[in-house]
DNA sequence: TAAGTTACCTTACGACGTAAGGTTGGTCGG
DNA sequence: CCGACCAACCTTACGTCGTAAGGTAACTTA
């Protein structure tokens, strides 16, 4: 955005912070070495004194956002049973993740699991083990949570993760034709749309859906935990 | 791969099939206009007589794989309650998706929902409505399923979706050091690794995890369906 | 047979990541 | 004080990408 006139040299951290800001403002497609360098008031090749390659830049961006999530979730209250604790943690992570909607897509392009993720999941696992989970059930639970611990879900029906935001939808006429061949979808949209005047498919309240799915998983796991504990 | 000596002109379908084959064989990063053209025995610019742009090519690749899933799930038996039916369908979709592990990542870069996805979800929605779901609960269920109807889950801990496959992991020494700071993860891996001699993090049986998560969701939704039906 | 259309090709442009090597200005041992 | 060193930044250039512009050759049709 704005060239810096600073005299103190850059650092890896300053570069990564600028990269996050750039992606937040203009999407992941805008993160090029030249553009990032321009934002920092230097030339593209100078970035290579702070980072070995673009892949390392992307790794660093992921790491930066993960640190933000860590900071958000590290100091939450610890009262309540395991469900309340994890629920609080996942919802807090979601608040951080909402500031960086491009993060899920970027994370899924990383070829190695960022070390910080291990530490993060260690904490979640500890919460479940302390609550009496077997390692097996806790393992299954981690898979079932998917990416929810980091605050997002794979959403087929709201591709905000794609660069540049969603395309302008189909026309009114096409939509009517579609609805005719898909009566259930049409009826569902009609029934659920009442609290939003927006006729596009942006009518879903992601927060409500996220919490519903999370509770569905937590309650199901709690049931399994109890039955396993009773018979084991 | 092999240049064609065919005399009949290409078609959009042949181009898309070649693109899918190319990505299956060499990863999404290998799908460039020049490379695809070479595989087809033509020049890059000639592709533009069949497709308007690379984005359209990617859309077409997604559409092709979705059609494959449709074909796989269209003729399944329809006996059983809604849970058995959806379970059968999602697992069949998964079999198709396993042949194209790059598909989730590609799908998440599409800016518009492919029309075929609407039709696919119409069928799932119909199954639930016929089983007595309210539109509201069915709507929540669709969100809870996430991408499971298409046969995949967002897996933080197995980034096979990234191009080029997973990186060679940390060293033995680093892993030991990590384990010391993460006793629960270490214990879980030790407890769960017994049925696989592979000491890397590839020890999770994705099929088992997928089915576990799916049943967790289906059973939870069935309970909600019943209580809603009883009180409503 | 002439005109048009279809399917393919050639050339070229600007953006990308980055290899190779140059230019500063400050630090520090002698 | 000075010359070696080095960190931080710059210049130039290469190969690859998607694709705009326009050419050519073969087949179709009036």
TrEMBL record, chains A, B:
Q: Which Gene3D superfamilies match?
A: Homeodomain-like (1.10.10.60), Tetracycline Repressor, domain 2 (1.10.357.10)
The record's section on InterPro entries has: Homeodomain-like_sf, HTH-type_TetR-like_transc_reg, HTH_TetR, Repressor_TetR_C, Tet_transcr_reg_TetR, Tet_transcr_reg_TetR-rel_C_sf
GO terms for biological process, alphabetical: negative regulation of DNA-templated transcription; response to antibiotic
HTH tetR-type domain location, by residue?
A: 9-69
This one is known as: TetR/AcrR family transcriptional regulator
Instruction: Give UniProt keywords alphabetically.
Output: DNA-binding, Repressor, Transcription, Transcription regulation
**What Pfam families does this protein's entry cite?**
TetR_C_1, TetR_N
Organism per entry:
Lentzea alba
Residues of the DNA-binding region: 32-51
Q: Give the GO molecular function terms.
A: DNA-binding transcription factor activity; transcription cis-regulatory region binding
